[in-house]
Amino acid sequence: MRISAAVSRPGTPAPTIEDVELAEPRAGEMRVRIVAVGVCHTDVHEHPGRLAPHPIVLGHEGAGVVEALGEGVRGFAVGDPVVLSGTSCGECPSCLNNRPTYCDLAMPLTFGGKRLDGSTSLSAKGEPLHSHFFGQSSFASHAIVPERTAIKVPSDVPLELLGPLACGVITGAGSVIEALRVGFGDSIAIFGVGGVGLSAVMAARLVGAERIIAVDREASRLDLARELGATDTLLAGEDVVAQVRAITGRGVRYSLNTTNAPSVHSQALDCLAMNGTAAFVSAPMGQWAPAMFPMLAGGRQLRGILGGDANPRIFLPRLIEYWRQGRFPFERMIQTYRFDEIARAFDDVEHGRTIKPVLLVSEA
Q1: What positions does the domain Enoyl reductase (ER) occupy (predicted)?
Q2: Fewer CB atoms near the end CB (10 Å): N or C, the chain?
Q3: For residue 272, is it within any domain?
């Protein structure tokens, strides 16, 4: 069938909307009409070509409605509202242990631009078009997705809000709740309060952390962080570690770094109390590792996190329920754009003018 998709091609400043051809779903797959899709920094970084092959349709924070089922799909019906998350094989030890973000096949399934058998569901002008980005390629009016990529959601929840839950929001909230298991009375410093960091702030408040210290370069983001639950806010700078220690008296039990700046990775380790844990969701740029080893003295730990350590099928319904209760107001981060405004959304993300853009593709 003919659909509209935003295609990333070499040498272009942003994806451009084209008419392309979408194949029918295969066994174990579904066709989903996309209602809305979030724009993530990963989409912006992948547009010029980093890990995924080009040309490609990106997009991995989709939400929509099931339109067609491939053979063998169970648990879904035509008309079901769904949120799309990353895909996984379902058979490796990580998947079987409810940690699908650490799937053994995560890299080819996420960035390979095709199914594992080498095929793709999209074509343009008779030529194959890379797709299946994070198992969805949802910068499009429709997407072919594996059953494992979709999570059914209540029909009375606004789909236009839900896409970001499946990547940026689950990464931040899951890092606090699932990976670090921050608890009542704990302290945490969160470096970078974009979509991931603000989700971590809300999660830390949700679990009853005593000190939630937000660090960012932008005063407006710090203002929002305080409204969403931060107890303290600090402008990024060389003296951040001293300020964190002055606030807590000893350093924090946990830190979460959402940036890729080596200096911030060092600060996130250096502000820890004895036996504290520093987590990160984005690897530091350049050569940083040798400098951090002395900081691990005193029982401090460093750990990387993918997807918040969370199983989307279990964790996303919890976040939706917290939102219903008014305890997780992630909609405060969202700014909506028409689908044909994707270039503006990309530019706004890259220059920090918006926290979480959501493209409105069709009516729910």
Answers
A1: 11-359
A2: N
A3: yes
Range of the structural domain that residue 262 is part of: 169-307
Within a domain: residue 320?
Answer: no
Give yes or no: residues 124 and 144 share one domain.
yes
High-pLDDT (> 70) share of the chain, %: 98
- Report the SS3 class of residue 55: coil
Q: Kindly state whether residues 223 and 298 are assigned to the same domain.
A: yes
Q: Which residue has the tokens 């970078």?
A: 192
Rg of the Cα atoms in the chain: 20
Residue 305: exposure state from Cβ atoms within 10 A (0-12, 13-18, ≥19): buried
Please state, in angstroms and rounded to a whole number, the distance separating the CA atoms of residues 320 and 23: 32
Q: If residue 273 lies in a helix (H) or strand (E), which one and from where to where? A: strand 272-280
In-domain check, residue 318? no
Question: Parallel, antiparallel, or unpaired: how do β-strands 356-360 and 334-338 relate?
Answer: parallel
Are residues 336 and 35 in contact, defined by beta-carbon separation less than 8 angstroms?
A: no
Q: How many domains does the chain have?
A: 2
CATH classification of the domain holding 190 = 3.40.50.720
Same domain, 303 and 355: no
Helix residue spans in the chain (DSSP H): 41-46, 93-96, 106-111, 159-162, 168-174, 195-206, 219-228, 240-248, 262-270, 289-292, 312-324, 342-350
